[in-house]
Fold these 2 entries.
Entry 1:
Amino acid sequence: MAAQKLSVDKALAREERVRRLAWPILLKNADLCPKTQPALGWRVGNADTIESLARGLKPKHIEALGWTEEPQILSIAPKSPAEEAGLKPGDRVIGIDGTSVDDMAKLGEAIAKRLDNVEPEETIMVNVQRDGEELAFEVAPQRACAVRVVSSSSGAINATARFKTLTVYAGLVRALPEDNDLSFVIAHELAHIAGQHPRKVTRNSAASGAVIWGPPLMALATAADWLTSYPADKLGAKTPPFTTASTRAIASTVKSVDFEREADYVGLYMLVRAGGHMEGLDNVFQVFANVSPRTTWLKVTHPMVPERLVHLEQAVAEIEAKQSNGEPLVPEGWAVHDHETAPETE
Ligand SMILES: [Zn+2]
């Protein structure tokens, strides 16, 4: 079981790192996100979650390591409401405000229902089991961007933004050992979501009327910029065949180059607003350049590295100027939302 335990521990460490880096980005950029939600800064999962996070483990191994259908806290971001309340990874979540939850579906429902109606300053009660003891913690949710951040077991050096879900691949977590570099990619993906790029891209390609070949469509729908090693199982490890439809799809995606530029630019702001720094970020582009397959559609949909670096330098200069003038760090052309006074529906 040692190998299986190591594999689960590694998956949980990746999950913890992604949660730790994503939390301040989602929190400090709430005013740039069109939609926000009260958040706790944790991730809860069960045996199924572990199966998806740690690739190749059989359910019986996961069960033997103590994972069941019951929800358990997988990760908690530092300084998040969950941490400040005293919750810990490993706690079994058994109730929300006294309503008992014994599986993920019930927990999801109870939390969504509760968070939807939470007033500012209001707390919710989380009932857990720790070392056989039942405990209750009062958690004060904080308003953060309404984005679900998940880590994936895939070895691809990639991250994607699809509607309200931001996925960080295991391959990327390994390829970027510097936290600040990984934070930049997370911020870049959040900028796609905040700019509603996935929606716009899908609309664009639908408007072209083309029957679009699978992978390019997926790439568009996910705004899969960092798509440097597209999962080989999906591509069949071959260069995509170029049909008329896929060529048309590519033509309709020239726009996605603009989205990439905007996500690099806004992502840099989001990184700095979340406490990150702007040094050495060219390293991130180099990592992607080195592993990038030379497929045509990738070249068309993704600005090349030198161009991205030039724009990055310009954005760094712009942010530094605003910092030294004491101006608020708001990307040019972007509006700041006041989520405190404007109640949201969703
Ligand atoms: Zn992008």
Note: The mean pLDDT is 81.
Entry 2:
Amino acid sequence: MMKLCSGCNAVFEGRRWIYNENLHKKLSGKSNVELDLCTGCEKIKKKTIDGVVLIKGDFLKKHEDEALNLIHNVAEKKRKRNVAARIFRMRETPEGFLIETTDRALAELIGKEFEGAFSGKLDIRWPEGEKFVRVNWERD
Ligand SMILES: [Zn+2]
């Protein structure tokens, strides 16, 4: 039995969920497929946060679009390789722009891509007693 994710374009193939928009579209509505939630949508449903990224600094005021594009591009690329790696939520906070991810590696990758694209100061830590990685990026 083929399984399709009801929350996104992931398809259960072989032993794991993979992101496959075309196959998802092709199999949608067929009688021999079952709907389920992929590992990524499951994590979002359960609000599983494995990474918190805080980006801040005056640089962002003038480069907001570039920064948002970068986040989206990194998230899309990562999701195609690993459906469980997703952005859970993004929001403006008094401290800066906060991105919560369902995956530790995705949070680290966003920080590294920011450093690669815009320089700035990157700090990645795993605070004791916390369940997620904290990534801070800053440029004034
Ligand atoms: Zn899904």
Note: Helices lie at 21-27, 39-45, 59-62, 64-81, 104-118.
